[in-house]
Amino acid sequence: MSDDCIFCQIVAGEIPSHTVYEDDDVFAFLDVNPLAPGHTLVIPKGHHERLNDLPDDTAENLYAAIHDLIPAVEAAVDAPASNVGFNNGAESGQEVPHVHGHVIPRFADDGGSPIHAVGGTAPDLEDEELAAIADDVAAARS
Ligand code: AMP
Ligand code: ZN
What we know:
With 142 residues, the chain is of the alpha+beta class. Helix content is 30%, strand content 18%. The mean pLDDT is 97.
């Protein structure tokens, strides 16, 4: 636990939340400023700042909980769809530095945008540049 982390304090019960799920490794609760009814945050109980920092077993348990919660959240608010995503690092818009996945129910004509809207100005990359980037990603895997 990180003493000054708001999500660690929620896991510890020191800050109240509308809890929707809890197991040994994972905690899920409603976002206090929801973008839609049912907007849910799914977090590892341990304090890890970014997805990149998660141990493999924690990553697996986190995604298993998200996989389980997506249809439950949609059903609870009668949503036909959802956006599921992580802000991963400050430059991406992550404000709370404790890994959290957003499950945001979506409705027809709700005025929202697809996840593509998160990007900045789109680069105009040639096919060779795409190939080089793909090679670099493959080489960078550990
Ligand atoms: P992010 O910008 O991805 O870091 O998102 C942080 C999210 O945490 C925002 O959607 C906030 O509304 C939400 N949030 C902040 N404090 C609380 C809290 N005490 N309980 C529930 N959600 C919170
Ligand atoms: Zn934390």
